[in-house]
Amino acid sequence: MAAPEPKRQRTHPNYELLYHPTIPGRGEYVRLVFEAAGVPYSDPANEDQNNGYPKVQAICDANSTGDEEGNPPAFAPPALRVPGAGKDGKSLLICQTPNIVEYIAPKVGLAPADEVDRLHANQLMLTALDMSNEAHDTHHPVAVMLYYEDQKEESSRKAKDFRESRIPKFFSYFERVLKGNKQLGKGKYLIGDKLSYADTTWWQVVDGLHFAFPKEMEARKKEFPLLFATFYPSFKEEKGIKEYLASERRLKYSMGLYRHYPELDRQ
Amino acid sequence: MAAPEPKRQRTHPNYELLYHPTIPGRGEYVRLVFEAAGVPYSDPANEDQNNGYPKVQAICDANSTGDEEGNPPAFAPPALRVPGAGKDGKSLLICQTPNIVEYIAPKVGLAPADEVDRLHANQLMLTALDMSNEAHDTHHPVAVMLYYEDQKEESSRKAKDFRESRIPKFFSYFERVLKGNKQLGKGKYLIGDKLSYADTTWWQVVDGLHFAFPKEMEARKKEFPLLFATFYPSFKEEKGIKEYLASERRLKYSMGLYRHYPELDRQ
């Protein structure tokens, strides 16, 4: 008997992603799960330039002790609002990228069905997001509130270490995960034989790094063949993802989490 | 009718925490959950200096594509091994601090019973661990593999920003969470009226910062009264925790995640 399909709800609440406008940023890790699943969501800061972003700013009010629905305050975007999913049918508001992804993925069919696989998917997502944070820190190693131009020297050292030590360490790790799962995942999936939120998260990191460090990526691609020749390109052909990447909803990289400063790339 | 107690297993598997010896580090976020719950665990690197650490090193083999039990490779400690909890009764091996904590907390009675509360506990743990990472980066802003002495100038700038911008931002956030939950949690708990893994994680961050930045903490304590006068001291009196903090199992801070360099503290 075949294993049962992961449960996927047929009707969905109005998921509302609250994040900064115009950049993919950390919001993109959430968007990719919805897009791969074909499940609608709203993204007010990008959909309504006048009235959308104030909704995001409101949840990050530096004096808030929580909202009227009983949710604790938000530290920073992204956040997800889900009408009816809170206590006593109120709105749920949750923050932290991995928390949001882990919450929605099983509901939209993007989490492995098996509990052990799900623990490993979570492990891989968290490891991918660690690399995402380190990529951010290559252009902001000193202070998130200062301009890059005010921390260029430190960025240069940080980016060198990132390229020479951290990229090989993380890429070797995910290459080995793909290799270990090759029989089931054909080099396309990190866990099992289906797309999961581990894949969407790691793919977004690799794609962001292609934007930020194009020369470094080009120079590394033969070292990690499953990653570069199978996983990375085949993801772009997945149902839901192909349409999304060609759509206007897929925001362009610019001055967000992943940034291209030629002086930080391989020379 | 009173709400049901969170389910807590009466018998437990032999939980094995695999982490570096001698330092609290990220392993401490896992230890505190077991200790607060009174659930036994083994910590081989600290219990058996000769044969323990090789077990930790073995799981981080840079060529591994996974183990014989079907677990993917580990990126870095901490890891948790749970005999019998993997597929087909094999051993489960999972990594990533928040993944491990989120896995064990409900099994040992340290997670909120309500699902919404659990999502918020997860959010708070992840936010606390973000601050933990930033605290680490105050002494390693450039490269984790270099000595502090090789990145002292960058550390000085990073620590200044951490003290002046990040400590107020994170502490204000958690003070407001305590305030929002005050009626239920009496300023002692972040979520609801019981100790949870959100509390153990955030307390360990605050405690680590007391070691790393004692002058800064002393200067800040009146700004965050619930945090410093209620939450922080009352946690030390919790059942399981009081005994643990007085025991030899509680490792001393030294040259790990939290480090005391007087020149990085408030002058």
From TrEMBL, chains A, B:
Q: Outline the extent of the GST C-terminal domain.
A: 114-264
Q: What GO biological process terms does the UniProt entry carry, in alphabetical order? A: glutathione metabolic process
GST N-terminal domain span: 14-112
- From what organism does this protein derive? Aplosporella prunicola CBS 121167
The protein's name in its UniProt record: Glutathione S-transferase
Which Gene3D superfamilies is this protein grouped with?
Answer: 1.20.1050.10, Glutaredoxin (3.40.30.10)
Matches recorded under PANTHER family: GLUTATHIONE S-TRANSFERASE
A molecular function GO annotation? glutathione transferase activity
